[in-house]
Amino acid sequence: MKRSRIVRGIWAACLLLAALNHLRILLQHGFSWDYHGLGWASAAYLSSLTVLDPLVAVLLFARPRIGAAATIVLIVTNVAHNLAVTAAHVPGDEFLARVVSAPQLLGQVAFMVFVLATARTASAGDPAREP
Asked: Beta-carbon neighbour count of residue 110 at 10 Å?
């Protein structure tokens, strides 16, 4: 149970830092910013993370099993979205170089790998699962 709380705490801290970054972007550019020419759906998704990230961080402790599942969905969709946007805006032979040279994207991929590797531990402390 203690290990589960520690892992969920790390996940929550990362989600809250990401939310602060999204909030900074919204305060700097406003709600109508298109994220350097992305379509409205991508901009809406990225802006929604300002609310979704802290909501999921709270769920990690209020409803751990739901919070763990939501964290997995959130980070996998975020990485998939950002990789797809990167692939759409750079030539194929530059894609890997662009990903490797983008610390924020690498951080998201690293967080996704960590979340997927520790998902069982994060869910193990769920009181609903214990006898």
From this structure: 12
| Statement: residue 90 has pLDDT above 90 | no
User: In this structure, what token pair is assigned to residue 36?
Assistant: 């350097």
Q: What is the pLDDT of residues 48-73, one digit of tens each?
A: 999 999 999 999 999 999 999 999 99
Query: Cβ contacts of residue 74 below 8 Å, gap of 6+?
Result: 15, 49, 52, 53, 56
pLDDT score recorded for residue 16:
97
Phi and psi of 44, rounded to 5°? -65, -40
Least confident range from 8-12, 83-87, 109-113: namely 83-87
**Closest residue by Cα to residue 112 from 1, 5, 15, 9:** 15
Work out the burial of residue 92: count CB atoms within 10 Å of its CB; fewer than 13 is exposed, 13-18 middle, 19 or more buried.
exposed
Helix axes 64-89, 40-62, angle to 10 degrees: 160
Q: How many residues does the chain have?
A: 131
- Whether 49 and 19 have beta carbons less than 8 Å apart is answered as yes
- With contact defined as beta carbons under 8 Å apart, do 119 and 70 qualify? no
